[in-house]
Each structure stands twice: as structure tokens, then as C-alpha cells.
């Protein structure tokens, strides 16, 4: 199977490699010519056999809208576009309508796995018509982790990104809980080895998780997180999850508090945000801000 892949950054580039390792033919395009297989989106489309499948892996919002606008004019009826970025589910509905008017299919794919996806596989939450999802099964099978789980056809167009949004909202709350516990342990004089306390939790406890493993990795790199400024960005999904909770009258105190804690981090060098920033760097390769030396 052939696939066009637009956006070869941290995740897109690793996805291209994993797909090729599985025997799929991937033609990649990126604005960075050092990463790209072709010089333009026009060339990418020309290199693919019909019916074409083009996976978009660029930042949500304006960048995704621009790429889909271009593909609307370049692709033909029967082709399929997959948005694998972190777009808002309401954008999916608009993009599907735009493409369907030209006879082009649309699938939204929430992708989780960060910088570890090449090695471990990517969890995929997918929305769209069953016929389009079935056509893309070889791609999903190549990307997902080994075993029976890691892929779900979550529902109609928008369902994949909605599920990924909720996943990321839960992730906010989990990271915040670890961060608060870490700060309390660091503050109490009687606890003299916080890192090893965290490590001890990775076996046999009810709070063990991959995030906890990554927290230990971060503490191995910087035991007291002294090199990291307590500042953590939010990439949008946490806000959207809280807004969806409001729209649907679903109480979300933990996720909302975690989101607001990130806002607090922009006002001071928050110890809790050191841990959140370290975790985001560990699982997603997100940049951290170094401590300023005055």
C-alpha cells in the first residue's frame, strides 16, 4: 500500500520510518527539504497511485486548514485524507464536509505515543466512515502496538480527535497528581530519597503507570529537577476537554484544576511544573525551559 505523509517532524518522521519498516511505501513531504522526499504537495500527489491516501501530520489550526485546502484541489474523487494531528473535533466536521463535496473521503486519527511511538507503536483513535477506515487498516496495523489493542474505530467523523482530546485531558490530571505528590515529598524533611520513593511505586502499587516510569527517568536525569524551570505549556486539548465538559454538563474538577495549574506555572517558578515539564519532555520530546542564571 502507498501513503502520502505531510509533516515529518518529531512524530511524522518516526511514523514514516515505522510504516516503511512494515513494508508500506511512504512518500513524505515537509517544508524542511532535508526531511522531505519530494519538493511539493503537488509532487507528492503525483507520485501516488489512485486511489490516493494522504495522511496530514502538521500542527492543528491554521497549518492543518491550509494543507487540507490544498489537498481539496489536488486530490480526486475516491481519494482519502487522514488528519493525524491534534485538531479539534469540530474542525474535523468542517474538513469532512469540504472534502466530501469533492468526493474525497476524510478520517480523523488521534495519535498517541510521542517520541516513543517508533519503538513501541502508536495508540490510534479513529473517526470516520467504516469503508474509509477499513481501507486504511494496513496503515493502522503498521502503526499500532503489537497485540490486539491500541487501535479503536471510535465512531463518526470527529470521534477520533474527541477521544484523543479526552485522553490528553486525563493525562493532564495524572501528571498533576504525580507533580503534587513529588513536591510534597521534596518538602518534608523526613523523606531523604524522593527519587527512590517514586521508583518503589513502579512495582506492585495501584498508581504505577508509564507516566510514573517516565517520572523516574526524569529524576534519574536531574534528581531534584534543578535544571528545569517550573513552566509548562498547554497544547490546547486540556482547554477543549474542559470546554466540552461545560457544554455537556459533565463535571471535570481534576482535569480543570490541572489545566489551571499550568496557568499558574506562567506566573512563577512552580516546583510542581518542573515535574510536569519533565514528564512532557520524557514522553513527547516537548522542549523544557532551562533555569535562568542571573
Automatic annotation (TrEMBL):
Tagged with keyword Cell division: no
GO molecular-function term, one example from the UniProt record: oxidoreductase activity
Name the UniProt record assigns to this protein: Phosphogluconate dehydrogenase (NAD(+)-dependent, decarboxylating)
Record-linked Gene3D superfamilies: N-(1-d-carboxylethyl)-l-norvaline Dehydrogenase, domain 2, NAD(P)-binding Rossmann-like Domain
EC number: 1.1.1.343
Organism, scientific name: Streptomyces kebangsaanensis
PROSITE patterns documented for this protein: 6PGD
Keyword Cytoplasm: no
Enzyme class of the recorded protein, top EC level: oxidoreductase
Lineage: Bacteria, Bacillati, Actinomycetota, Actinomycetes, Kitasatosporales
Keywords: Gluconate utilization, Oxidoreductase
InterPro entries for the chain: 6-PGluconate_DH-like_C_sf (IPR008927), 6DGDH_YqeC (IPR004849), 6PGD_dom2 (IPR013328), 6PGDH_C (IPR006114), 6PGDH_NADP-bd (IPR006115), 6PGdom_BS (IPR006184), NAD(P)-bd_dom_sf (IPR036291), Pgluconate_DH (IPR006183)
PANTHER family on file: 6-PHOSPHOGLUCONATE DEHYDROGENASE (PTHR11811)
Cited Pfam families: 6PGD, NAD_binding_2
Family recorded in the similarity comment: Belongs to the 6-phosphogluconate dehydrogenase family.
Encoding gene (name): gnd
SMART domains per the UniProt record, alphabetical: 6PGD
Residues covered by the 6-phosphogluconate dehydrogenase C-terminal domain: 160-293
Amino acid at each position: 500500500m502507498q501513503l502520502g505523509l505531510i509533516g515529518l517532524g518529531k512524530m511524522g518522521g518516526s511514523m514514516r520510518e515505522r510504516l516503511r519498516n512494515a513494508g508500506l511505501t511512504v512518500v513524505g513531504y515537509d517544508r524542511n527539504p532535508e526531511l522531505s522526499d519530494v519538493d511539493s504537495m503537488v509532487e507528492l500527489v503525483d507520485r501516488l497511485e489512485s486511489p490516493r491516501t494522504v495522511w496530514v501530520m502538521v500542527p492543528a489550526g491554521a497549518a492543518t486548514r491550509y494543507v487540507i485546502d490544498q489537498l481539496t484541489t489536488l486530490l480526486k474523487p475516491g481519494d482519502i485524507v487522514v488528519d493525524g494531528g491534534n485538531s479539534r473535533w469540530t474542525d474535523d466536521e468542517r474538513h469532512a464536509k469540504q472534502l466530501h463535496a469533492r468526493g474525497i473521503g476524510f478520517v480523523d486519527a488521534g495519535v498517541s505515543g510521542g517520541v516513543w511511538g517508533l519503538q513501541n507503536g502508536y495508540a490510534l483513535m479513529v473517526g470516520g466512515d467504516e469503508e474509509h477506515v477499513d481501507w486504511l487498516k494496513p496503515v493502522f496495523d503498521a502503526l499500532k502496538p503489537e497485540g490486539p489493542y491500541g487501535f479503536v474505530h471510535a465512531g463518526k467523523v470527529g470521534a477520533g480527535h474527541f477521544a484523543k482530546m479526552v485522553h490528553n485531558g486525563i493525562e493532564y490530571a495524572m501528571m498533576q497528581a504525580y507533580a503534587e505528590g513529588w513536591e510534597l515529598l521534596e518538602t518534608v524533611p523526613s523523606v531523604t530519597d524522593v527519587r527512590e520513593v517514586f521508583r518503589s511505586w513502579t512495582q506492585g502499587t495501584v498508581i504505577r503507570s508509564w507516566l510514573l516510569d517516565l517520572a523516574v527517568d526524569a529524576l534519574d536525569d536531574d534528581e531534584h529537577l534543578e535544571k528545569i524551570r517550573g513552566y509548562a505549556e498547554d497544547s490546547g486539548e486540556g482547554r477543549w476537554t474542559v470546554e466540552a465538559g461545560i457544554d455537556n454538563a459533565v463535571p471535570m474538577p481534576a482535569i480543570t484544576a490541572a489545566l489551571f495549574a499550568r496557568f499558574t506555572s506562567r506566573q512563577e517558578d512552580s516546583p510542581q511544573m518542573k515535574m510536569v515539564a519533565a514528564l512532557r519532555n520524557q514522553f513527547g520530546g516537548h522542549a523544557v525551559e532551562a533555569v535562568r542564571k542571573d
